[in-house]
Specification:
The chain has 729 residues and is of the alpha+beta class. It has eleven helices and 32 strands. The strands form seven sheets. The chain has a seven-stranded mixed β-barrel. The protein has a six-stranded antiparallel sheet with strand order 2-3-1-4-5-6, with no helix packed on it. The radius of gyration is 31 Å and the shape is elongated. 41% of the residues are buried.
Length: 729
C-alpha cells in the first residue's frame, strides 16, 4: 500500500481489513505470515467474511513510502470477485473496492497493489479513527551502534586518510555509532560502502521494556539481525507506551563492488618499480595486489568479484540475464602505465565467465579506474557521454562503440578504498567492439589476415608484443595476439594510408580516404579537441581498428589527465579555449631513438591530424558535424555533470579524505613540476587547475570550461585549422 498524495499521507497506519463481497468465506482461524512481512502486525482477527490486521505500533505513511502486509486466507477468491479494503489511520478511515484479477489456488501467493492515489476518490471518514494507536512515552534510545565483531564483512575494521603532505593515518575501529536526533525522533548512519543491510544493532535505551523493529517484536540488543533495507522504524517501550524512531541506514548511494584477491598477490614492499606509491597504498590499505604482467590467477574460495546496487540487490547477471546472488570467481590485477605510479591503484578484472554488470552487457573483462588525478572524478565519464551525444545525433555513422561505465564504491580485500569508475574494457566482442575476431574462426590465426579484425592502440609506451611504427613515428600496437603474417598485413595497410596522406595531394587524400572511415576520424578528433586532451601528442591511449578493409578511429579512452584545464596556465602546452591543439605541433615528427627510446625528444605529432586538417573533405565534414552537434553537447554535458555531482556528493566526501590530490605550486607548467605530488611519487604534470578547489567548485569550473571550449572551437565551423609544413622523415 502507498498513501502518497492522499488524505492518509503522513498519518499513522493502525489496521487493514479485507472483506469479501461475494457471500463466500475468505478467511478462517489462520496465522499471519510472520516470516515474510515487511511491516509490523501485532495481531489480527477473523470473521466469516473477512480478515483484519492490526498494527501494535503505528508506522507513519510518509510520502513515497510503501507498506506491506501479509495474511493467510482461504483459496475462495475467484477472478472478478469484489474485495472491500478498509484502511484505518490516525487521520481517519478510507474504504474502497477492488476486483481480484485471477482466481486464487491453494499454496498460491497473490499481490494486491494498493496505490491509494490511483483508486479514484478515496472516501475518508475523519470521524472514524481507529483505537489501535499506541500512546507515546518518555522512553528513549540513547545509543545505537554496529560493532565489527557482530557484523563481520559488513562493518569493516580499518579506515584511513591522507593529509596534504600525503601522510597516511590508519584508524582501526571496533564499531560505528549512529546519530540520534531526539527532537525529531530520528536515527541516522551513513556507511559509504554498505551493501548488506542485515545488521545486528547494539542499542542502549532508557527503558527496560521491549525494543521493536517497525513494531515487529522484540529486538535483543547485540543479538537480533534486523534488515534495515526493510525496517525503517524502531520503537522502545511496550503496551503502556512507546517512542518510535525513524531509522535511516544508508550507503553513499553508489553501487558497491566487493573484490577478494588472495591468489598471486605480491608484497608492495618488493615492488621496486613504483616503490613510493606502492608503499603509500600498502601503508593505507594493508592490502596487496597482482602486478599488471602477472597471470590471471584465480582460485575458488579465495578470488571473487561481486557488485551490489545501492539497495543491496545483486547487480550481476549471467550471460542469459539471470540474477546472480553469490560472488563469482574472478581475478584482479593492476592496470595502466603511469597510473600504476600513483597511490590509489587502478585495477583490471577478469571474470571466470561472462556476466552482465550494472545493466551493462555481459563480458569477462572489466576495468576499475581510480581517477586519482581528477579532482572532479568525472572527466572520463564526460568524454564517454560526449561520444554518446555524437551517436545520438549521428546514429548511422561515426564511432560505432565506446565504453560505458558507472561510479562505484570499492571494497578491496576487506578495505574500503574509495570511489572508482567501473567500466567496460575495450575488447573485440559482440557486446563491445563488434569486428571480425580471429578467435571466432576455426583454426584461429591460420586464415587470411585480411579477413581478421585488428584492434590497435597508438601509445608511445610501446609495450605490447606485436607492434610497429610508421614513417612519421606513430606507434601502433596489437591489443590481442597476432602472427607474423597479421603484423605484416596490418603494418602495410596502415603505412599505406599514411604514405597517401603525406603526399598532400587530392589523389593522395582520395586514396587514403578510400581505406579510412572518415566520419569516425572526424568525431574522434572533435572530442579530443573539445576535451583538450594533450596526451594525443605523444600519443597515448589512442585506439583505432581495421575491419573488412577499412580503418576506423576509436574507441575513446583515458581522459582523467591533461584535459579540460581551468586556464592556459594549467595546460602543458598553454592551449587556449579558442585555438586548436594542432597549433602546438612541432615541425618534425621524428623523435631521436624512437621506438627504442620512445620518450626521448618528445616532439608532438598528434597522430595524422596535422595532415588530415589540410584536406578540404576532412574540414568540410568536421564543420558539418560540429555545427550539428555542438548545441547538444553543451546541453547534454551540463545535464550529465549535474547528475554525476548529485551521485558523487557523499562518496567524494569520503574519497577525498582517503586520496587527496595535490594542488601543485606556483603558476605555469614548469613550476608545477616541483609540486609535492611530483616530489613524492615522480608523477608530475597533468594538472587541470582545479586540484585545490572544493568538489563543488571544481565541478562548477568543469562546466564553465566545457562551455568556454565549445564556444571557442569556431575554427572548426570556419574551417580555419592551423597549417604547417610537416615531414614524415
Amino acid at each position: 500500500m502507498d498513501a502518497t498524495g492522499t488524505a492518509l499521507e503522513n498519518a499513522k497506519l493502525q489496521k487493514i481489513s479485507v472483506k469479501g463481497n461475494n457471500n463466500r468465506q475468505i478467511s478462517g482461524d489462520f496465522t499471519v505470515d510472520l516470516a515474510s512481512k515487511e511491516v509490523s502486525m501485532g495481531g489480527f482477527s477473523t470473521g466469516d467474511d473477512g480478515i483484519e490486521i492490526v498494527y501494535t505500533t503505528n508506522p507513519v505513511m510518509y510520502a513515497n513510502g510503501s507498506y506491506n502486509a501479509y495474511a493467510t486466507v482461504m483459496p475462495n477468491v475467484e477472478a472478478g470477485d469484489e474485495l472491500v479494503f478498509t484502511i484505518t489511520s490516525s487521520a481517519g478511515t478510507a474504504t474502497f473496492t477492488t476486483t481480484a484479477a485471477v482466481s486464487q489456488e491453494a499454496n498460491g501467493f497473490y499481490v494486491f497493489p494498493i496505490v491509494l492515489a490511483e483508486m479514484g476518490d478515496v472516501d475518508v471518514d475523519e470521524d472514524e479513527t481507529g483505537d489501535a494507536e499506541v500512546p507515546t512515552s518518555d522512553f528513549k534510545i540513547t545509543e545505537m551502534k554496529f560493532t565489527v565483531a557482530n557484523n563481520p564483512g559488513k562493518i569493516l575494521p580499518r579506515t584511513f586518510t591522507h593529509d596534504a603532505s600525503f601522510k597516511v593515518t590508519v584508524t582501526n575501529i571496533t564499531e560505528v555509532k549512529c546519530t540520534i536526533d531526539q527532537e525529531n525522533q530520528k536515527i541516522t548512519l551513513c556507511v559509504p560502502y554498505l551493501f548488506d543491510y542485515k545488521l545486528i544493532p547494539t542499542i542502549t535505551a532508557s527503558s527496560s521494556d521491549a525494543l521493536f523493529a517497525n513494531g515487529e517484536g522484540l529486538i535483543n540488543s547485540g543479538e537480533t539481525v534486523v534488515d534495515f533495507a526493510t525496517y525503517k522504524q524502531i520503537a522502545v517501550g511496550g503496551e503502556n507506551g512507546a517512542t518510535m524512531y525513524d531509522v535511516e541506514i544508508t550507503n553513499s548511494g553508489l553501487p558497491v563492488v566487493v573484490i577478494n584477491q588472495e591468489s598471486g598477490t605480491t608484497s608492495t614492499e618488493n615492488n621496486l618499480k613504483y616503490i613510493d606509491a606502492s608503499a603509500a597504498w600498502y601503508e593505507a590499505t594493508g592490502t596487496k595486489w597482482q602486478p599488471k604482467d602477472s597471470d590471471w590467477k584465480m582460485e575458488k574460495g579465495k578470488d571473487n568479484f561481486m557488485v551490489y546496487y545501492p539497495n543491496g540487490m545483486s547487480a550481476l547477471e549471467d550471460k542469459d540475464g539471470n540474477r546472480v546472488i553469490e560472488p563469482v570467481l574472478a581475478s584482479t590485477r593492476l592496470r595502466g602505465n603511469v597510473t600504476q605510479q600513483m597511490p590509489k591503484k587502478p585495477f583490471a578484472i577478469k571474470l571466470d565467465k561472462k556476466h552482465g554488470v550494472l545493466d551493462m552487457p555481459a563480458h569477462k573483462r572489466w576495468v576499475l579506474l581510480a581517477n586519482w588525478k581528477d579532482r572532479t572524478l568525472m572527466r572520463n565519464s564526460v568524454a564517454f557521454a560526449m561520444a554518446k551525444t555524437f551517436k545520438n545525433i549521428f546514429p548511422k555513422d561515426g564511432m560505432e562503440w565506446n565504453p560505458a561505465g558507472e561510479f562505484v564504491e570499492l571494497v578491496y580485500n576487506g578495505v574500503h578504498v574509495g570511489t572508482y569508475y567501473l567500466c567496460e574494457q575495450i575488447k573485440i566482442d559482440g557486446n563491445r567492439l563488434d569486428i571480425n575476431d580471429p578467435y571466432d574462426v576455426e583454426d584461429a590465426y591460420s586464415g587470411n589476415p585480411a579477413d581478421y579484425g585488428y584492434l590497435l592502440e597508438s601509445d608511445d609506451g610501446y609495450d605490447e608484443t606485436w607492434k610497429f611504427t610508421t614513417a612519421c613515428y606513430v606507434p601502433f600496437l596489437f591489443k590481442d595476439d597476432g602472427t607474423t603474417d597479421m603484423l605484416s598485413y596490418a603494418s602495410n595497410f596502415v603505412r599505406g594510408i599514411e604514405d597517401n596522406l603525406y603526399k598532400n595531394t587530392t589523389a593522395g587524400y582520395d586514396a587514403a580516404f578510400a581505406q579510412m572511415d572518415l566520419t569516425s576520424f572526424v568525431d574522434f578528433w572533435l572530442i579530443q579537441e573539445l576535451m583538450m586532451n594533450s596526451e594525443t601528442k605523444h600519443p597515448k591511449s589512442c585506439y583505432s581498428y581495421i575491419n573488412n578493409g577499412m580503418m576506423y578511429a576509436g574507441p575513446l579512452w583515458d581522459f582523467d589527465w591533461n584535459t579540460l584545464p581551468t586556464s592556459s596556465s594549467y595546460s602543458e602546452d598553454s592551449y587556449t579555449y579558442t585555438t586548436s591543439m594542432l597549433s602546438k605541433t612541432s615541425a618534425s615528427h621524428k623523435r631521436s631513438g624512437y621506438p627504442d627510446e620512445p620518450l626521448d625528444n618528445d616532439d608532438k605529432n598528434y597522430l595524422w591530424y596535422p595532415m588530415l586538417v589540410k584536406s578540404a573533405a576532412f574540414k568540410d565534414l568536421a564543420a558539418e558535424r560540429w555545427n550539428a552537434v555542438k548545441g547538444y553537447l553543451k546541453a547534454d554535458a551540463g545535464i550529465h555533470i549535474d547528475k554525476m555531482y548529485q551521485q558523487l556528493m557523499v562518496s567524494e566526501s569520503y574519497n577525498s579524505k582517503m586520496w587527496p590530490v595535490d594542488s601543485g605550486s606556483g603558476n605555469g607548467w614548469m613550476a608545477m613540476l616541483s609540486s609535492k605530488r611530483y616530489n613524492k611519487y615522480g608523477v608530475g604534470g597533468g594538472y587541470c587547475g582545479d586540484e585545490g578547489m572544493s568538489f563543488k567548485n571544481a565541478v562548477d569550473q568543469l562546466k564553465t570550461t566545457i562551455n568556454s571550449r565549445i564556444d571557442g572551437m569556431s575554427y572548426v565551423s570556419n574551417k580555419n585549422w592551423p597549417s604547417k609544413s610537416y615531414s614524415s622523415k
